Amino acid sequence: MASGQTGTFRRRIEITTREMPDGNSQARCVVEDDFHHFRVVVSAREGRVVAISNDALRSPNTLCDAAGGRLHELIGTALDPSCAAVQTATDQFQQCTHQFDLAGLGVAALALGRPRRVYQATIPDRAEDGRTIAALDVDGMEALRWEVNEMTVEAPEPYAGHSLGAGFTRFTRSLPCDEAEAALVLRRALFVSQGRKYDTEFLERSGPVGGCWAWQPERMDTLRRLPENRISFSDRAEALLVGDDDWLAFRV
After folding, report:
1. Mean pLDDT estimate for the chain
2. What is the pTM of this model?
3. In this structure, is the dihedral angle defined by the CA atoms of residues 153, 156, 162 and 165, taken in order, positive or negative?
4. Distance of alpha carbon 70 from its chain centroid, rounded?
5. DSSP 8-state code for residue 35
6. What mean pLDDT do residues 192-203 have?
7. Angle 113-119-120 (CA atoms, 0-180°, nearest 5)?
8. Which residues contact 134 (CB under 8 A, 6 or more apart)?
9. What pLDDT score was predicted for residue 184?
10. pLDDT tops 90 at residue 36
11. What is the dihedral of CA 199, 197, 87, 166, to 10 degrees?
């Protein structure tokens, strides 16, 4: 059922890294938008992931936290500057999509020795013809601005004509590493932004069946949506991740 909501979808991701007293390097990664507020911690030593944990602070359904626990399958994975490299280590459809994305960003940040990265996506709700203009700031500077029709990029090059569905990750391999990462972050934000047009309270079992661990058919009897966890940041981008500063700064 359509929600009738109009406004702007906003999503913020932050990743910070630090060398820890135990000799491990650690990445702290967090995302927040209308539907999600997740944290992931990736620890590495000698070029490989040695520990990983998650915290689903606000979830769209009851199984997200348990799904994030499956990130342990990435232990032993080699650090790689491509955030999509984790897809070769395990089945992404048996993971929580968003916590898995955070893990990939953390692995890449550790591989690159990047101390901090901030992504902010801004996507006005689609017009009646399905069009919107999606923008992504990277560390406070606009890096991408796409003209989008439903889930196809219309401009600019080299994105014009590319579907944001199957095949997009493969396309990003032709891009410089930083740009590929930003493109994948904006693509995910565009997927999630579509949820704003639905009143999830009335969707019941309708959803992305097969798209992630929580939405596998065998779990449909136990999954319950949590529409009460939905928060709009349409007119208050400054509220995103407002409570995560100390955690990201390794003060807690």
Report:
1. 93
2. 0.94
3. negative
4. 16
5. S
6. 77
7. 170
8. 121, 122, 123, 144, 145, 146, 148, 186, 189, 190, 193
9. 98
10. yes
11. 130
